[in-house]
Here is the input.
Amino acid sequence: MAAVPVSLAGSFQGSFAYFTIKDRLPQILTRVIDTLHRHKNEFFEEHGEKGIEAEKNTISILSKLRNELQTDKPLVPLDDKLPDVPLWNQYLEYQQNLLDGNEQPSWFQSPWLYVECYMYRRIHEALVHNPPIDDYDVFKEAKIESFFESQQAIIALCTYLQEHLKNIEDLDEKQLQEELFKLLQVSLWGNKCDLSISAGEDNSQKASPLKSLDNLKTFILVDDMESIWSLLINSKKRRTSIEVTRVDIVLDNAGYELITDLILADFLLSSKLVTEIHFHGKCIPWYVSDTTKQDFNWTIKQLQSANNRWMSRCGMNWEGSIKKGVLVYHDHIFWTLPHEFCSMAQVATDLYTELQKSHLIIFKGDLNYRKLTGDRKWEFTVPFHQALNKFHPAPLCSLRTLKSDVQVGLKPGQGEQFVTSEPDWMICGKYGVVQFDASL
Ligand SMILES: O=P(O)(O)OC[C@@]1(O)O[C@H](CO)[C@@H](O)[C@@H]1O
Ligand SMILES: [Mn+2]
Here is the structure.
């Protein structure tokens, strides 16, 4: 196979990577500092003087971090005690070895994917070094706010699921396929709502998600929904009563997007297209809005206790599915490492083996797409399978709105047409893909 292309990086002046490292990441750090400031009283009430001390120390570490980033300083090894530290520090060495003897990995020179992940891990390190606020999630407030901002859309989805799909057993194949396509698209467009692209500003779903699907259809650049349908319906037909059909969903953002993923999961289970859903979330706060176990549990609880009866019914059902073991939540440190997914088999063999049990893995969102394709300067027409670079644990698909400049699997001329007519087509979140790889 031909060598892989170079990584996107801040060294490409004027690229989205450059702009992100120069402007957006410092903005995110400033917001984190501001959040800690605003919660000073809360830290005092909970932990007394020790809380205030910890808040001050964390802020000073983060201000220093922002300065390192803005002046393109060398990346330094991590030095907390968490289990992923050796892997991070080996990765730094690996990046070092890719350079000429005198150069050192740095914010603008190293791959964008690496430095951006590294920033979030350094934010976590700053907190870990400062008990008693070491388990404080600096993005929690923004995630909670975005959940409440999307209330109407969440109600619309829960109502749809409960009312419209209560006769799901009676649907014929065509109708079942239509519902699947609808909810795949809802989950795809749910990915517009991430808080990293907006540097933490409100970016929630306000319009009715089901009504807008037809209008949005033309913005799906790669549509492999038929392949997903064939895979699922064939496996349903072949399955004996003791067999399992397992779908894994590698989650992205909490808030509205997570609800769309839960709705999709519920539909897959209640239609009996699948028998088990496995969710995968992050172990630490990540890219502002990504889902952690706390976010996941909080979301289910919120739904259960909501005033709206469809919302609370969804919450109850999902809690029930979790108890029955048909809805399973996992996390793994690999998801918050800087590695491309093609190194998962070596770096996180246990996770790779777990994913091999799946009949279909759904990767949500832009960052997962970047890691699937290695965040490299691929030609638009390179097949998705090739860009995966031997990452094939099971059949997989990506549901992703385009928010960074990597895209593969397009038809000849398809990408070029946008380059002139809509220069920001790859970063504005207006376009999406449902892109499938059959694995073998
Ligand atoms: O993975 P998500 O939530 O869809 O997007 C994450 C994201 O906002 O962060 C990066 C920019 O900082 C981009 O990869 C992408 O746009
Ligand atoms: Mn995200």
User: Anything to note?
Assistant: The beta strands are 220-223, 246-250, 276-281, 327-331, 360-364, 396-401, 432-437. The two ends are 16 Å apart (CA to CA).
